[in-house]
Design a protein that fits this description.
The protein has about 425 residues and is of the alpha/beta class. The protein is about 45% helix and about 15% strand. Bound molecules: pyridoxal-5'-phosphate. Pyridoxal-5'-phosphate binds next to helix 6.
Length: about 425
């Protein structure tokens, strides 16, 4: 009988000296020790059913993709390609032109010799799009989140953060030396209590995702801004799952909820709705952006965003500033998918957002159902711990403007079959 990972790990922990003093050369024994520890840890992940396999796509990103090992075109319902701009011809062309004119990359960070007019133009465009004073680019929004809090706040200040904020915010908060308060997810009473506690600190910054990526729920920004006024605090939002399509002009949850002039700092990504290549940014008051350029470590110590990536994002923003037609088509598709699935007996998290988590609970069930969906030509992914809390595994379906009505109906039909097979619906 094979030993489970848990048993192996426990045995290993009882014998911490194993691998040493066995006559092995020192370097080899250290590697053997590492391999044994990691092997047991990996086995634990497999045992828990939370192992993440990566499927290999052999085509462009889009509603219809090819996946290695699967025959024919697969319908993709798990990209953050909300507006279908990742493969938009004008976005691709703009990337090609930027590559041609500005080269593959800068071989430099921004402040040494890594700033091109292309980067300055995109920063100005982002600030204009969000109606903020200035913007600063990063290699990713993960970096923007990792770099902002430490740069802005000191031990005299306080961060008040939603408990379900994205991992990158959690890491950014960890790096920061300000006093930290965590309020219950979207719980305004708890936020107010924490704000009262935090009154003794100099600057108070409320930190929340605009849309929470695992549940598709929208932060109550109006009420958060009311509290920020009452307690003289600043508001920061992460708009990765909102920029480009939430609100009447796609500006984000702050536009949707009528608080664009009350949210002080916005971080977001170029890697989802805005062309999907890569990159992130902070936009907000000029003094904030000026300080980030001087102090933010992922900005100061990491390479400039490559010109083709900048070219793609810049065109995506042009398209969205010219017209909101693409974003508008999505709302009715989201409504249709959610209503069909709910009518069939599935529990769908969030409200009115293209992130539609099909709640299942069990990690193995989520992964087996996702596998069965792929057999039916639908690419969806099961999410389990540590990406979501234990016992809250789900399949996260993401609707894109590029899905046709027929695509959505095929996805619903496959869910009906697979849900029935696994006893999730009658
Ligand atoms: N913030 C949120 C809410 C996200 O969902 C993500 C990406 O998954 C990020 C930040 C990181 O964005 P990026 O991919 O640009 O690093």
């Amino acid at each position: 009988m094979l030993l489970s990972g848990r048993v192996l790990l426990a045995a290993w922990r009882r014998r911490p000296g194993l691998g040493l003093g066995l006559g092995l050369p020192r370097a080899r024994s250290a590697l053997a020790q590492l391999n044994a520890v990691l092997g047991a840890e990996l086995e634990l992940i497999r045992d828990a059913g939370t192992w993440k396999n990566e499927r290999i796509i052999t085509s462009r990103q889009g509603a219809h993709i090819n996946v290695q090992g699967s025959e024919g075109a697969i319908l993709n319902f798990c990209a953050n390609n909300y507006l279908g701009l990742s493969s938009h011809p004008a976005v691709i062309q703009s990337g090609i032109e930027a590559l041609d004119q500005y080269g593959a990359g800068l071989s430099s960070v921004r402040f040494i010799c890594g700033t091109q007019n292309l980067h300055k133009n995109l920063e100005a465009k982002i600030a204009k799009f969000h109606q903020r004073e200035d913007a600063i680019l990063y290699a990713s929004c993960f970096d923007a989140n990792a770099g902002i809090f430490e740069a802005l706040l000191t031990p005299e200040d306080a961060l008040i953060s939603d408990e379900l904020n994205h991992a990158s915010i959690i890491d950014g908060v960890r790096l920061c030396k300000a006093n930290k308060y965590r309020y219950k997810h979207m719980d305004l009473a708890d936020l107010e209590a924490k704000l009262q506690e935090a009154q003794k600190h100099r600057i108070r910054l409320i930190v929340t995702d605009g849309v929470f990526s695992m549940d598709g729920d929208v932060a109550p920004l109006k009420e958060i801004c009311d509290l920020s006024d009452k307690y003289h605090a600043l508001v920061f939002i992460d708009e990765c799952h909102a920029t480009g399509f939430m609100g009447p002009n796609g500006r984000g949850t702050d536009e949707l909820l009528g608080v664009m002039d009350r949210v002080h700092i916005v971080n977001s990504t170029l890697g989802k709705a805005l062309g999907g290549a890569a990159g992130g940014y902070t936009t907000g008051p000029k003094a904030v952006v000026d300080l980030l350029r001087q102090r933010s470590r992922p900005y100061l110590f990491s390479n400039t965003l490559p010109p083709p990536v900048v070219g793609c994002a810049s065109k995506a923003l042009d398209l969205l500033m010219d017209s909101n037609d693409i974003a508008r088509t999505m709302a009715s598709k989201v409504k249709w998918f959610r209503s069909q699935m709910t009518a069939a007996g599935f529990s769908i998290g969030g409200m009115d957002h293209p992130i539609c988590p099909v709640m299942l609970g069990d990690a193995r069930l989520a992964s087996a159902m996702a596998e069965d969906m792929l057999q039916r030509g639908i690419y969806v992914i099961g999410f389990s711990f540590p990406v979501v809390p234990k016992g809250k595994a789900r399949i996260r379906v993401q609707i894109s403007a590029s899905h046709s009505e027929q695509d959505i109906n095929r996805c619903v039909q496959a869910f009906l079959e697979v849900g029935h097979k696994h006893g999730v619906i009658p």
